[in-house]
Amino acid sequence: MSRAQVDDVLTVDHLVRRFGDLVAVDDVSFRIAPGETYGLLGPNGAGKTTAISMIAGLLRADGGSVTVAGHAMAPDAVEPKRHLGLVPQDLAIYPELTAKENLRFFGKLQGLRGAELTQRVQEVLDLIGLADRAKDRAKEYSGGMKRRLNIGVGLLHKPELLILDEPTVGVDPQSRNSILESVEALSVEGMAVLYTTHYMEEAERLCDRIGIIDSGRLAAEGTRDELIQLTGGTDTIRLGGSGDLTAAAARLREHPGVEQVDADRAGLTLTVRDAPTLVAALVGVATDSGVRLADVEITRPDLESVFLHVTGKALRN
Ligand SMILES: Nc1ncnc2c1ncn2[C@@H]1O[C@H](COP(=O)(O)OP(=O)(O)OP(=O)(O)O)[C@@H](O)[C@H]1O
User: Fold this and answer.
1) Looking at ligand 1, which atom is closest to the CA of residue 169?
2) What is the distance between the alpha carbons of residues 263 and 240, in angstroms, rounded to a whole number?
3) ipTM rounded to 2 decimals
4) Nearest CA to ligand 1 atom 7
5) How many Å lie between the centroid of ligand 1 and the Cα of residue 30?
6) Ligand 1 centre distance from Cα of residue 58 (Å)
7) Are 207 and 183 in contact (CB under 8 A)?
8) Residue pLDDT, tens place only, 54-99
9) Domain named ABC transporter: which ranges (predicted)?
C-alpha cells in the first residue's frame, strides 16, 4: 500500500449500484488525499453521477463503502456530510437574489451566523472571483458566473472535500476557463476536489490523478503521465512525401529511439520515443535518403489515447 489510508479525505471501496439489470457503478474503488484534485473521466452514461451521488450520501449503495474524513457515509449519516460539499450539475441558486444574498441565504441554512457568516461569504466571493459583482442579481450573470456562484454555495461550510459534477457542461469557452480557474484556486487553498468530466483537457489541466471510468468500471487510474505510460508511451511521427521511401525507411529503422517505420505510397509513419527531441534528426535522415518531404506531423498520446487503450472505445462518442 503506497499511501497512509488514515490521511485520506475520501475512501471509496468496492462501490456498487444497480438499476434493474444495469450495473451503473461496478466495483469502483479509489482514494483522495488532502489537497488532491481527483478526476473521474468518462463519457456520458459511464456512471459518474451515480458514483458521486453515493459518495455524497444522496443514493444508497448496493455494495461497498464510502468514508469521508474518517466517517462512514450513508444516506442517513450526518457527520460525513459536514466534511463534503456537492456542486450538482444543475444550477441551485436563486436568480432574483444577488451573489451575496444567495451565499448569505445558503450560509444561514448551514448554520452560519453573524460575523462568521459575513466573513465566510466574503472569503467565498473572493475565492470564486465574484467579489466585484457581489451586489448584482444572479440572473444578470453569464453562464460561467452562475456556475461559479453554484460552486461558492458548496464551499460555505469549508468542506475538506468538494465534489463537482461536470461543472462546465453547456457553457461557452470563456466561461469554462473562468470556472477552471476557480477550481484551480481551490486546490491552492488545500481543498481536496473530486471532479467529474467527459473533457480530457479539463482532467489534464486540473487533476493530480485521474480515474478512467467506462460502463460503471474504473478501467485505469493514475497521474496523467502514469496513464500515458499504459499506452506504451511512444509517439508517432508522420513524414509525408515522395522519393525512395523504402531506402529511407531502412535507414530510419537504424536510428536510436526509432521503434518502428512503416512506408506507404504517401510517406512514412515512425513509432518513436520522445518525438520532439528526435524529429529534426529524423527529417535529416529522410531528406539525406532522397525523400522530398511535403509535411511533418507529430502525434503524442493523450488521455484520449489512454481511454481508447484501456476501454477499446473512443472517449468522444
Ligand atoms: N435512476 C436511474 N434509474 C435507472 N437508470 C439510471 C438511473 N440513474 C442512472 N441510470 C443509468 O445508469 C448509467 C450511469 O448513469 P450516470 O448518470 O451515472 O452516468 P454519467 O457518467 O454521470 O453520465 P452523464 O454525464 O450523462 O450524467 C446510465 O446508463 C444511466 O442511464
Assistant:
1) 25
2) 10
3) 0.95
4) 19
5) 20
6) 14
7) no
8) 999 999 999 999 999 999 999 999 999 999 999 988 888 999 999 9
9) 10-240
Q: Which residue matches cell numbers 468538494?
A: 162
In which element (H, E) is residue 186 found? helix 173-188
Residue-wise pLDDT for 200-252, tens only, equals: 999 999 999 999 999 999 999 999 989 998 988 789 999 999 999 999 999 99
Q: For residue 48, is it left (φ>0), alpha (ψ between -120 and 50) or beta?
A: alpha
- pTM for the full model? 0.85
How far apart are alpha carbons 144 and 133 in whole angstroms? 13
- 157 within 8 A of 110, measured Cβ to Cβ: yes
Is the minimum distance from the CB of 47 to ligand 1 under 6 angstroms?
yes
How far is residue 317 CA from its own chain's centroid? 17
Q: Hey, how many other C-beta atoms are within 10 angstroms of the C-beta on 253?
A: 12
- What H or E segment, with its residue span, contains residue 40? strand 37-41
Contact 35 CB / ligand 1 (< 6 Å): no
User: Domains (ranges, CATH) in the chain?
Assistant: 5-229 (3.40.50.300), 234-300 (3.30.70.260)
The preferred substitution site among 50, 55, 195 for testing ligand 1, maximizing ligand atoms within 8 Å of CB, is: 50
